[in-house]
Design goal:
The chain is mainly α and 430 residues long. The chain contains 22 helices and no strands.
């Protein structure tokens, strides 16, 4: 009997903490790009028009999402065949390399078109990493969690995802407080990318020491078919389409309410970059604390009520929230409105990982969770900023509010029609 099986409670807690810590650093590296876009965009995309600069940087952000389905495909199969731990270690290695490239790449004024080209390469590497990270970490946390607390423990994937985003914003706030505006514009924005690369190296060694999940070990012993793209779409088409559609509205809402919100507060509402960062930091911290509460609630009442609640509230509240934010100059009111939006999307973020994992058997779970999610995330989440800025540039910014509302409505239909995965889970632990 292995150590993991001899002391399952202690090993489970160690694994969840270790997996979550690594997930935090992964997402810190990913979100630093978004948090510091306002500072580094002029270095890579020279222009007198701030919206044009942000649009170029957002396009590169979206380009990173192109690699996420590829990463989900390749690394999802890798995690299904070689183990969840191996997949997690590989993903953080790629993230480290991408962050390091951004940290040391000279600007457009020094090396010309090579600067944005290297930025694109770095984001492609990070997209490959995150594409594999989501499936591997979601699968790992849900398989290690245990049946009765699966919603609670799996919610820590978004706790650490939000923590990574929050840490990126906190680093921004610290640099804003300690460096002058000129220093931050000139070279200070490179610091968080260098920090992310260093932290990723630390996480690599942490992940190498994690225990493998019992579900993966059992699947290997049973001699079940190997994970693969053809098998996913031919043997599990309903589950694959379900993951894509339930993700579409949720991921778009998340990126609209959190990632794009910082730029919206500056570029549309008219707040300073510092005030927008402060609003984002406070609301994200509260949002982070809500995740395990909602995850625990799903263990008691099921996953479906939370997703349906998000769908209904998202359809009803998205337009009023954005339209009011566009005209307010009161930071307290702006923070309250952003918080309402984040409370709404908690019904999706807190449990989406466990819902997807519970749809697939162990031998194809990492791929099944990662690939359809990555496809929907690329199409809707990765393009959220670009679509919003294009609507703004065209003078019809309200079109973006309706777009988000409509996609949440599409996902709501899926939530209403699907079975509650808490009662019909494919995760077998014994």
């Amino acid at each position: 009997m292995t150590k993991a099986h001899a002391d399952p409670g202690r090993e489970r807690l160690k694994a969840i903490i270790g997996g979550s810590t690594g997930n935090l650093v992964e997402w810190f590296d990913w979100y630093v790009y978004s948090a510091f876009t306002l500072y580094f965009a002029p270095h890579f995309f020279p222009s007198e028009d701030r919206t044009a600069q942000l649009l170029s940087a957002a396009a590169v952000f979206a380009v990173g999402f192109i690699m996420r389905p590829i990463g989900a495909w390749v690394m999802g199969i890798y995690a299904d065949r070689k183990g969840r731990k191996a997949g997690l270690s590989l993903s953080v290695t790629l993230m480290c390399a991408g962050s390091l490239i951004i940290a040391i790449t000279p600007g457009y004024a020094t090396i010309g078109l090579a600067a944005p080209a290297l930025l694109v390469i770095a984001r492609l590497m990070q997209g490959l990493s995150v594409g594999g990270e989501y499936g591997a970490s979601a699968t790992y946390l849900t398989e290690m969690a245990g049946k009765d607390r699966r919603g609670f423990f799996s919610s820590f994937q978004y706790v650490t995802l939000i923590s990574g985003q929050l840490l990126a914003i906190c680093v921004l706030l610290i640099l804003q407080a300690t460096l002058s505006e000129g220093q931050l514009d000139e070279w200070g924005w490179r610091i968080p990318f260098a920090l992310g690369a260093v932290l990723a190296v630390v996480v690599f060694y942490i992940r190498r020491g994690l225990a493998e999940t019992k579900s993966f070990e059992n699947a290997k012993k049973d001699g079940t078919p190997q994970s693969g793209l053809i098998q996913l779409f031919t043997k599990h088409p309903r589950e694959t389409i379900t993951v894509m559609l339930l993700t579409a509205g949720g991921t778009l809402a998340f990126y609209a309410y959190s990632i794009y919100m910082q730029k919206f507060l500056v570029n549309t509402s008219g707040f300073s970059r510092e005030v927008a960062s402060q609003i984002n930091a406070v609301t994200l911290f509260i949002f982070m604390l809500l995740q395990p509460l909602a995850g625990a609630l799903s263990d008691r009442i099921g996953r479906k009520p939370l997703m349906v609640g998000f769908g209904i509230a998202g359809v009803l509240c998205t337009y009023p929230i954005f339209s009011t934010l566009a005209t307010t100059r009161d930071p307290i009111l702006a923070g309250a409105l952003v918080m309402v939006a984040l409370v709404v999307v908690t019904g999706y973020t807190s449990i989406n990982a466990v819902v997807k994992a519970e749809l697939f058997p162990a031998h194809i779970r990492a791929l099944g969770v990662a690939l359809p999610y990555a496809l929907a995330n690329t199409i809707f989440g990765g393009t959220a900023e670009s679509v919003a800025l294009l609507f703004k540039k065209a003078g019809i910014e309200q079109g973006f509010y309706w777009y988000v509302t409509a996609m949440i409505g599409v996902s709501l239909i899926v939530y209403l029609r699907m079975r509650d995965t808490a009662k019909h889970s494919q995760i077998v632990e014994d």
